[in-house]
Amino acid sequence: FGIHVGPMEVDFASIIDRACRIVDEDSAGIEDALLHHVENPHLIQGEAQFVGEKTLRVSDTTLKAERILIAAGTRPHVPDIPGLSDSGFITSDEALRLREQPRELIILGGGYIAAELGHFYGALGTHVTVVHRRPVLLRHEDADIATAFTEAFSRNHTVITNVTPIAVTRNADEIILTVQDKQTGETREIAGDTLLVATGRVPNTEALNLSSTGVQVNSEGFVQVNEFLETKVKNIYALGDVVGRFLYKHNANHEAQYAYWNMVLGHKVPVDYSAMPHAVFSHPQVAGVGLTEQQCIARKIAYSVGHQRYADTGMGSAMQEEDGFVKLLVERESGKILGCHILGPEAPTLIEEAVVAMQSGKGTVANILHAIHVHPALPEVLSRAASGLHQH
Predict the structure, then answer these.
(1) Are 374 and 298 in contact (CB under 8 A)?
(2) Which runs of consecutive H residues, i.e. helices, occur in the chain?
(3) Residues assigned a catalytic role
(4) How far apart are CA 234 and CA 216, in angstroms?
(5) pLDDT tens across 292-323, in order?
(6) pTM
């Protein structure tokens, strides 16, 4: 793994080489299969642009089809900050392909990309400073999760929140980010040798010339589709990040199955997003599915909350896990699981029990309560959250 012990030493180049080799070999294998070993599908490489409703031009090749699927993805968003474009900043595209480990890494942004890459570099010994416009990191999570994560993450890294970036300058090997406090108006300078911009994603739609097709995009540039993934143009579909519903790889896989049913087989099945989970592979880990408590309140849903700390279970106590907890939201009358939010070790694994319970039968909390849970094992924390529901 690139970690040597006795004394402890990090082989950064080895870690990066291993990660790149795994990803690049997988990508090259798919490309090779499409180019040399199959007749259908057929791969044509190059930048594509619509030149008619159902006509594409790729380099010198013109393609026409009755059915078209747009899966063009997204790219890192780069904010308009004076001096940023000339600073030599990096994005998530380059962050795991660096040849030298940063000593002082500044991360602009407070979402899952900032949390994951901040943890990765911080764990290897880089001093990490996360700079965020909002009061908490992971602001789209349930408020209890976002607050607890911000507190835990701040113990290991420097976290500066509620500030606005106003300028970036570079002096030799040093990058300086100037920020202004939103409450006091005071400015401060943050110095580092590397600046990682992690301020969200934008869709790759403007280069496609979609106006020539009639395909519509929203104000953020994401392709607009109906419940069947079909655009305003009959038999032109879109899926994945370019649609902007859930920017996760597992969601793209999920939508691909529906795209096949709807545009190839013609079954017209609406996409089921009712239990779409997500996870943040940082420290602590985070996972969630369904509604947050704030969304339940906004929708005026009568709900109950089950809250269970890892530390109050056998395995959690043995692990001396002080931060971790499960928060379960259940509709009061029906017992239907509205959402589940987890902070702590193995959160991305534990969330799957909630996902399966939400998709099984009537999707009620009984699916968790009636299952026998191994003692002592981490899933007990979810079981106890389900058995300790309190009305709100």
Answers:
(1) no
(2) 12-32, 92-95, 112-123, 143-156, 249-259, 293-298, 314-318, 347-359, 366-369, 380-387
(3) 375
(4) 12
(5) 999 999 999 999 999 999 999 999 999 999 99
(6) 0.95
